[in-house]
Design goal:
Blueprint lengths: L3 H5 L19 E6 L2 H11 L3 E8 L4 E7 L10 H8 L5 E7 L23 E6 L2 H10 L4 E3 L10 E4 L5 E6 L4
Parallel strand pairs: 1-4, 5-8
Antiparallel strand pairs: 2-3, 3-4, 6-7, 7-8
Length: about 180
């Protein structure tokens, strides 16, 4: 691993954060999903996330589901307060359902970025124990792209969500 000085000396990296960006946060990654019930079940039951907010846009024919690792007690009951609170959460996943995809026999699904042409790769979830988490995932019937003992990089895994998006499973101690 690089030292802090080496990180800041990497070509293209600004050593000082522009004060204009001081309150910027990474708030969300958006995935398009085909079938909301299946995806919500995966993210809540398999990964333990919570549904933080649901935003319906019937005229535009889509719904947004914001998922994250938050304590239920911290989610505001008041809808207006919850809406403001949502935009302060770090690293949420926005599941976007375009209405009708779930019942369209011609719709084959979304590109996950890991086949040609390659683009987006994956998100990562930190767990306390990769083998234990993977054993649980196997018992739940989760599809694996890579198991912890496969390939050259050991003790990390890649699972797939219901739409085929890859999720890296890694321990907090790193690779």
């Amino acid at each position: 691993m690089a030292t802090k000085a080496e990180l800041f000396a990497t070509p293209g990296v600004s050593a000082e954060r522009d004060p204009a960006t001081a309150r910027f946060i990474m708030q969300q990654t958006m995935y398009r999903i085909k079938e909301p019930t299946r995806s919500l079940k995966f993210y809540t039951e398999v990964l333990g996330m919570r549904l933080l907010a649901k935003l319906d846009f019937p005229a535009a024919k889509f719904t947004l589901y914001f998922m994250g690792f938050e304590d239920a007690a911290d989610i505001p009951d008041d809808e207006a307060e919850r809406h403001k609170w949502l935009w302060t959460r770090k690293a949420t996943i926005e599941l976007t359902h375009n209405h009708g995809t779930e019942s369209d026999p011609e719709f084959k699904g979304y590109h996950n970025g890991n086949s040609e042409p390659r683009g987006f790769g994956h998100i990562g979830i930190v767990v306390p124990d990769v083998p234990a988490a993977c054993k649980r995932f196997e018992e739940m019937g989760v599809e694996f792209q890579k198991k912890p003992n496969e390939g050259t990089m050991k003790n990390l895994a890649f699972i797939k969500d219901p739409d085929g998006y890859w999720i890296e499973i890694i321990e907090s101690k790193g690779v």
